[in-house]
Amino acid sequence: MTDLETPSSAYIHVPFCQHRCGYCDFTLVARKDHLIDDYLAAMEQQLATVEPGIELQTLFLGGGTPTHLSIEQLERLFAAILSRFQLSDDCEFSIEANPLNLCIDKIDFLQQSGVNRVSLGVQSFHSEILTFLERDHQPEQIFEIVQNLRDRIPNTSLDLIFAVPGQSLQNWQDSLADVVGLGIPHLSTYGLTIEKGTSFWSRQQSGLFDLPADELAGTMYEYSLEYLSSQGLQHYEISNFARPGFECRHNEVYWTGHPYFGFGPGAASYLKGVRRQNHRSVATWLKRIAAGESPISEEEELDPESRAREAVIFGLRRRVGIDLADFESRYGFTLDELAETAMEKNITAGLLEQTETHLRLTQAGCLLADSVVIDFL
């Protein structure tokens, strides 16, 4: 498939949460459950614009917290999705979840509805870190919830955050050991970043806390690479680790530059070379759809060179890197034509390495990936 063909992947954004954590800048509303029925009606309306019968290889429900919805509300959302799309026999059907939303009845419902992958926002196995991050679960609850979940949906992924104020290297090492002890087949690790507009930003600006030194954050990341690899979790993308066969196929669609549908407030789509993003404001998105207007806030048609440069930026996130021959075949440019200077600079600096077939980040490059990809813009 090229990036100009009909997508076989769809992302559905569910913007509801019980509480907005202080570090979160995602599109969501907290404690506004009275909007859920309006959201479901709008989603039915937006999905109705899709030609029915398209088969999906991956379907991903993110948020927000999709599992914040009740079973009845999820049932209505799933029915709307499946009225337009068919799921392939081996479709990866993922949903993001908060641990305390996952009672046995809801897990059973998800399994019976065809969900076969759950991404669980654990963030830490230490109570003081969870309290700082404003999470509503405690470490002892995680183990039981994960066990209940994996008994029914084995393809469970956990999210963990490192470089949190007050977090020691030993604390991080213990959390990684807990993940391995649970037999989790997929793990996403993210260094804490403070985004402007979040409550953490205001607190940091007021001097209420400082992030750990870059050196400690780098040590935590490097330990993750070495330890998880030794335990059979392969580092396949800058922030992601998986046992063979458990890589997130939906995210691979993004990283390999293939097209996808996006529905819901703040959701992005990539269709026939055009990137679109819906309004991030839930209220604006609802109002526009109710009025029969377009929910799109941004739209950009990428020219061939822009598509190629974007493919470099996403492709370098993958640890396998960019297949040079495939890249030229798909985009009509060689990497030398596109960014010879950027390549030479970062290879010389030890941040990129080039083989006969691929260009990829080195381990040192993974730590400085954002500065590397800027050179390719």
TrEMBL record:
Biological processes per GO annotation: porphyrin-containing compound biosynthetic process
Gene Ontology terms for molecular function: 4 iron, 4 sulfur cluster binding; coproporphyrinogen oxidase activity; metal ion binding
Superkingdom of the source species: Bacteria
Keywords, comma-separated and alphabetical: 4Fe-4S, Chaperone, Cytoplasm, Heme, Iron, Iron-sulfur, Metal-binding, Oxidoreductase, S-adenosyl-L-methionine
SUPFAM superfamilies, A to Z: Radical SAM enzymes (SSF102114)
UniProt xrefs under InterPro entries: Coproporphyrinogen-III_oxidase, Elp3/MiaA/NifB-like_rSAM, HemN_C, HemW-like, rSAM, rSAM_horseshoe, rSAM_sf
Translocase is among the record's keywords: no
UniProt GO cellular component terms: cytoplasm
Gene3D superfamilies cross-referenced by the UniProt entry: tm_1862 like domain
Radical SAM core domain ranges (all copies): 2-234
Compartments where found: Cytoplasm
UniProt keyword Nucleotide-binding, yes or no: no
Xref: SMART domains: Elp3
Similarity comment: Belongs to the anaerobic coproporphyrinogen-III oxidase family. HemW subfamily.
Classification via PANTHER family: COPROPORPHYRINIGEN III OXIDASE, RADICAL S-ADENOSYL METHIONINE DOMAIN-CONTAINING PROTEIN 1, MITOCHONDRIAL
Functional description taken from the UniProt entry: Probably acts as a heme chaperone, transferring heme to an unknown acceptor. Binds one molecule of heme per monomer, possibly covalently. Binds 1 [4Fe-4S] cluster. The cluster is coordinated with 3 cysteines and an exchangeable S-adenosyl-L-methionine.
Name of this protein: Heme chaperone HemW
